[in-house]
Amino acid sequence: MENGSVQNFNLTNNHLNATFDFVLKAENPNRRISVYYDYIESTVMYEDQTIAFTTIDPFYQPRRNVTRVESKLVAQSLSLSQATFKDMRIEKTSGEIEVDVHFKARIRLKVGVWKSDHRTLRITCSSVAVHFSWYKHFDKVPCEVEV
């Protein structure tokens, strides 16, 4: 995970409103294989509860390429348990919130004119600290990748 931020974060009456923005750096160093990302979904989790979800436009990644994948996830009037609401309020006072960000994609590999069947790519970015202040630096987070 290369960058992340949260805007319009509001906790009221056990409900959450927020907009999360994340940038994932997808590297394809291979000189022969290119990748089709046919379907991508992105999820933000807080204490094992999904708090925001979105899909990302499909794209093609050529050989020896770095692509930045932007994901904007919105939580709108999301109902939270009393315990989750309390924990989020505490984290808000610390100036940042720690979330897990998941990406799940259906991909195909291309070598020459041959294309593979669909495969599932899962990316998990754990313990992503997102700051409420725009001037705070985002620390890059390594993510686990599974095909």
UniProtKB/TrEMBL annotation:
Its main location: membrane. It is found in: Membrane. GO terms for cellular component: plasma membrane. It comes from Corchorus olitorius. It is a single-pass membrane protein. One of its GO terms (biological process) is defense response to other organism. Keywords: Membrane, Transmembrane, Transmembrane helix. PANTHER family: HARPIN-INDUCED PROTEIN 1 CONTAINING PROTEIN, EXPRESSED, LATE EMBRYOGENESIS ABUNDANT (LEA) HYDROXYPROLINE-RICH GLYCOPROTEIN FAMILY. The keyword Transmembrane applies. It comes from the Eukaryota. The keyword Membrane applies. This is Late embryogenesis abundant protein, LEA-14. InterPro entries: LEA_2, NDR1-like. Residues 24-125 form the Late embryogenesis abundant protein LEA-2 subgroup domain.
